[in-house]
Design goal:
heterodimer, A: 343 residues, mainly alpha, MetI-like fold, 75% helix, flat, B: 296 residues, 17 helices, 74% helix
Chain lengths: 343, 296
Amino acid sequence: MTVSDGVSAVKSTSTRTLAAQSTTSPSAPVKVRAGARRAKRRRTVVFFMAPAFFGFLLFFGYPLVATVYYSFTKYDLINPPQWTGFDNYIRMFTTEPLVGTAAYNTLWLVIVLTISRVVFSLGVASVISRLKSGVGLVRTLCYLPTLAPPAAATLAFVFVFNPEFGPVNRFLRLVGVDGPLWFNSPETSKPALTLLALWGSGELMIIILAALLDVPAEQYEAAQLDGAGPIRRFWHVTLPSISPVLLFGIVNSIIYALQFFTQAIVASSASAGTADVAGNSKLIGAPQNSTLTYPIWLYVQGFRYFNMGYAAAMAVLLFIVSAGFTWILVRQLRKSQHQEEGA
Amino acid sequence: MITISDTARKPVTVPPRVQFQRAWNKRLSWIATHAIGIALGIIFMLPILFVFLTAVMKSDQAMTASLWPSEWHFENFVTVFKKAPLLEYFGNSLIYSGLATVGALLSAIPAAYGLSKLRWRGQNLFFMLTVAAMMLPPQVTVVPLYDLWVRLGLTGTLVPLIVPYFFFDAFSIFLLRQFFLTIPKDYLEAAKIDGCGEFRAMTRVLIPMAKPGIAATAMFCFLFTWNDYFGPLLYTGEDQDHWPLSLAIASFRGMHHVEWNMTMAATALIMAPVIVLFIFAQKSFVKGITFTGVKG
């Protein structure tokens, strides 16, 4: 972070001093005016940016720092926080039984969901990119489910994948296969959630599709004339030119999987059939804690049991893991921005 | 390039059999890709179709494995409003999404202007921090934020969800900045030469030119808040009167002891506004999404 920031800071200050020199050198009055102009410019920046600065500090900067503080305390929202040192972290890594399950479930999603989401999106996008007609229609149909509210989409999937009367198992029975229990079995609940996530991965599809359509056609023609088959063309022409977008897709999917919350919590209570007020604590993670993701357990610890200190410790761990991936995206964005400015 | 012109000049004689084979292969792959394309489109639409078909079934038929309604009960879409205070939830959703979108535009347009059209020290750093704020899971900062709103006595209402949008919404700032960068600075310079200040240059020149981008940002913001589940669960979970649709739908079935057909009718109703919005503004959506991706 510091290196590249330093570079750009040096760059901008050097141009600024150059400009300042050229305006200030002739005579004294100009210097005063330049100073006044600089003050006015600063006022302008403050005028435009003040709400954002304030909002950033209050709603992002402060809570980020405060989370670290709370993670070293015992806090239940009513009594003032009590400093307990590393107790929460020690508990997290030793005695508390469900945090491991939750971390495992999220890790499962990070691996399986990321791989399947990127491969699936790439597959669908490359089919769409080859269509000669109806591109717009197919693109629309594949993208539309992404917009469905996750809570509603999850309900739809719980119904469609219902083991008894759901259309999917009915179809499987038709072809002679005994369909699995999907959301009702700990073995298949996470795969079912993955299918749900794939159904809503239209955003990534469209980003990859745009990248595929940007690959220059001459490169394919040249490769074809050199005798490269479709696989080698994909490997040597398509893949290198869309690799930045694929990296974006991978990191984006990892972050998506790390915060997987709504679908899992809704599916667990909806499939159990007795969802009460905003999801009963007892049903969360059902069946058998197989859908208890790390963010859900953080939520339950913090806002059902009011172990705010413990939840904060979990948040710090989540921050450490996701900050790394976020940093990859920020750096990549920065690189592409510099290229654009240079061009 | 050289190879292309070389081969083009050479009188290549392809035997007719091979030529025929090639044309045949081409046609075959055309059929294959289009068949897969159509199949994909249908598969993606099937769950939505099932939702709709189940929504108009009789309640006992919805519990069977039949896919096609034996009788069409379109009145289910009306009956469902009597089963639960859907209109109230709908109103809450509208308040949350509407105000948040207005707030996001009011706060993010000047901020995006400052990040794309002004030059100042720390500009890059603030932009990167904004992107980081956009990417990090919301659960990371949630403990102190909740604490803050409890102390202000505002939990149990939609206020904690809406207010931040009036100051800082990372995604809107990010997206608007990307749009504003595509608008040449010359127009703004011309306005300034004519005596406009930065603020007037923004309102009179930039905003009219960036209308598609602003519309796309507004739609994404509306959609995000309309679909939001975690925020409402956190702040209004205990207080049913303030539930938006997204939260209500999740506990709909158990709470009101209703059948699947009613649940699916409600599901269809909550999906409908989003689908209508998309149909009317497809282009801005697609443009906005490609803007969020990293260009290769």
